[in-house]
Amino acid sequence: MTRRADGPLGGLAACAALVLALPVSAQQERPRAHFLGPGATPCATILGQIAAGQEDVKNGTVGYIIGAWSQATVSRRQAFDDLVNRLGTTRLVQLTFDACQTAPEGTLLGEVVSGSIAKTTAGLGAR
């Protein structure tokens, strides 16, 4: 099956884009997860390194984000998969970087990514 990740965003995708852009609440407890690689790094650190031109950090971070979203499509309903494909990798990465910029100090990239996935899943009524 050929997937199409480009094209105009429909109402569902636009709604998800808003959900993805929401910052992690400062009052929210840290999830009980062990993040690895870029996921274990504070957003501010990653964004600073990318701004300083560290391409290896940027490439590793993009790979982490895409991998997390790709894995999430395995265990969720088709609507989630369709949404991820309609947004496309470039938009998912940009939404993640945007959320990192507004996240409270010390927020890990993994928290932003997993929180965005959870909020999007809940918004679609998926498991």
Distinctive features:
globular, 127 residues, single chain, mainly alpha
Overall 3D form: globular
Low-confidence stretches: 1-9, 21-27
Secondary-structure element pattern, one letter each: HHHHH
N-to-C terminal Cα separation, in Å? 24 Å
Largest sheet: none
The proportion of residues in beta strands is: under 5%
Rg, Cα atoms, Å: 14 Å
| The number of domains | 1
Q: What is the number of beta strands?
A: 0
- The helix/strand class is mainly alpha
Mean pLDDT, to the nearest integer, reads 78
* Percentage of residues assigned to helices: 55-70%
Treating each run of at least 4 consecutive H or I residues as one helix, how many helices?
A: 5
Structural description of this entry:
The relative contact order is 0.24. Helix 1 runs parallel beside helix 4 (78-102) and helix 3 (55-72) runs antiparallel to helix 4. 62% of the residues lie in helices and 0% in strands. The two termini are 24 Å apart. The longest helix is centred in the C-terminal third of the chain and has 25 residues, at 78-102. It is globular. The model is unreliable at 1-9 and 21-27 (pLDDT under 50). It has one domain. It has 127 residues and is an all-alpha fold. It has helices at 11-21, 43-51, 55-72, 78-102, 109-124. It has 5 helices and no strands.
Explain briefly what this protein structure is.
With 127 residues, this protein is mainly alpha-helical. 62% of the residues lie in helices and 0% in strands.
Q: How would the blueprint of this fold be written?
A:
Layout: H1 11-21, H2 43-51, H3 55-72, H4 78-102, H5 109-124
Helix pairs in contact: 1-4, 1-5, 3-4, 4-5
